[in-house]
Specification:
This protein is α/β, with parallel strands linked by helices. The protein is built from seven helices and eleven strands. It has a seven-stranded mixed β-sheet. A two-stranded antiparallel sheet has the order 2-3. The mean pLDDT is about 85. It holds the Pfam family NTP_transf_3.
């Protein structure tokens, strides 16, 4: 089973501390724009997936969208541990809900190419069978986007160990793992709205 993690659990420092999921673009909340793109792309691919939202505030608003809302298991209220903590909680959800493979989608990435999921997934079933320890990382031109990942639920052990050591950097964790890139050919194909 496939899963999609909408990463919306951050502090939103570059957005003045706002919950980025509820910031608006053309009068639509970021989270609604992202979920609509995910649904459209899954339908086009003929795939079903567990869509989950990683969030740590405005939980009832997220829950009203109709998808599981997963809070970070680390830290207390207002103690934001970063996107890796959100990914960790989603992978734990995957263990109990039989999700084998995940694609992460940051909530501020409101404009992606229509084939984004197809490119991000690659041949994910083959990867799970032959090299499940490999993590896919998005690259556009010469830039890596560390919050855009394709990874197996089995990465949970490594991720837990890394976070238990007190480290939080996605880039730092990926440097300890085997990674390959998936590529978009133009930065304009990935619209990130992460600051005013």
């Amino acid at each position: 089973m496939l899963g999609i993690i909408v990463l919306s659990g951050g502090e939103g420092r570059r957005m003045g501390g706002q919950d980025k999921g509820w910031c608006c673009h053309q009068q639509q909340p970021f989270v609604a724009l992202v979920v609509a793109q995910i649904e459209q792309q899954l339908k086009a691919l003929g795939l079903q997936a567990h869509i989950v939202i990683s969030a740590n505030r405005n939980l009832s608003r997220y829950q009203a969208l109709g998808y599981p809302v997963i809070c970070d298991r680390r830290g207390g209220q207002g103690d934001y541990q970063g996107p890796l903590a959100g990914i960790e909680s989603a992978l734990e959800y995957g263990l109990t809900n039989k999700v084998d493979y995940w694609v992460t989608w940051p909530v501020d990435s409101i404009g992606a190419v229509p084939q984004y999921l197809q490119i991000a997934l690659g041949d994910w079933r083959h990867s799970l069978s032959n090299n499940p320890s490999t993590i896919r990382v998005l690259q556009t031109l010469d830039k890596l986007h560390f919050a855009h990942l394709g990874l197996a639920t089995m990465q949970i052990s490594s991720l837990k160990s890394y976070l238990d050591s007190g480290q939080r950097s996605i880039k730092g964790w990926l440097q300890t793992r085997e990674c390959v890139t998936f590529t978009l050919t133009c930065d304009a194909q990935l619209l990130n709205c992460n600051q005013f």
